[in-house]
Structure formats: structure tokens, C-alpha cells
Amino acid sequence: MFNVESYTGSREEQYKMVIKQLKALLDGETNRVANLANASSLLNQFLKNVNWVGFYLMEDGELVLGPFQGLPACVRIPVGKGVCGTAVSEKKTMLVEDVHQFPGHIACDAASRSEIVVPIVKDGNVIGVLDIDSPVTSRFDETDKKYLEQFVEELTLHI
E strands within the chain? Predict the structure, then answer.
């Protein structure tokens, strides 16, 4: 059974706790969809000021919507398009302070103002992305980037 935690301490300590919770949620489970669904739910309850948390997975050369928390979303995103597609083509985390300033941003939710996208890399190939949107400009910073990359590294071991 999962209990909602009251996260205390520094942001770093809070992120370490959520990664510890992720490990416990994934322990012994091999189903990719279940693990991605629980990971998106965990981040959605942990992160403040976010309006979408989820995954896109590579399929036939494009990103396809996977498990998520939030409003209905774009189903397919070409590699190299928008923030998610750019994260895949560049194989790096994209931290966007203002999505309206990002050339080619794909607006799935009009309320989104900032975004972070972390590529999921397995055996040297991008197999998907973690995508998180916020209705607040400049919501994400280097601390988020560091620990969300660690979160994805742990998750990758179970998908």
C-alpha cells in the first residue's frame, strides 16, 4: 500500500525521498506500463505547480503518448519537433523557462508556461521521454533537472 508522504527538508532531501519511493514502487514489478503509470502518479503528487506529468515512448521513429497524469495530450510527436522531440534528437534534458519562447513548441495544454523533458536512454538509444509541464513560468531549475535525471535513471532499470 502506498501512503502519501509529507515531504520535509531541503528540496534535495525531498527528491531523494521520492526516488526512494520510486524504487519501492518498482521493486519486483516488470510491467513497463504499470511502472510508468506509477512513476507519473508519484511525480504528480510530489511536484507542486505542475499541470501535466507523463511519458512519451519511441515507436516507429516518433514519440507516442504513454502513461500520464493531467489533461488529454497530443498523441504523436515527431523527433525534432517541440520540446519533447528536441530532447530526443539532442539526447539531452530540455529545461524551458517559457514555452512561448521555444521555437516550434507544441501546445497540448494552453495553460502550460514552462516545461522540463528528460530523455529515457537505454543501451545508448532514446526509448522515450519524461515530460513535465507547469502553468508557472520558470518553474523548473537545475535542482529539478539533476534529480529528475536521477529519477529517470532509476526508472530505466525497470522498463
Answer: 52-59, 62-70, 76-78, 94-96, 114-122, 125-134
Q: Starting at the edge strand that comes first in sequence, how are the strands of the sheet with 125-134 ordered?
A: 76-78, 62-70, 52-59, 125-134, 114-122, 94-96
Which residues lie closer than 8 Å to 37 by C-beta, 6 or more apart? Answer: 67
Cα(108)–Cα(106) distance, rounded to whole angstroms?
6
Rounded distance between C-alpha atoms, residue 79 and residue 85, angstroms: 4
Q: Is the pTM of this model over 0.90?
A: yes
Q: Which of 90, 99, 91 is nearest to 132 (CA)?
A: 99
Dihedral, 15, 19, 22, 27 alpha carbons, nearest 10? -160
Q: pLDDT per residue over 49-78, tens digit each?
A: 999 999 999 999 999 999 999 999 999 999
Q: Are strands 114-122 and 94-96 parallel, antiparallel or unpaired?
A: antiparallel
Task: Count other C-beta atoms under 10 Å from residue 34's C-beta.
Answer: 15
Taking only Cα atoms into account, the Rg of the chain, rounded to an integer number of angstroms, comes to 15
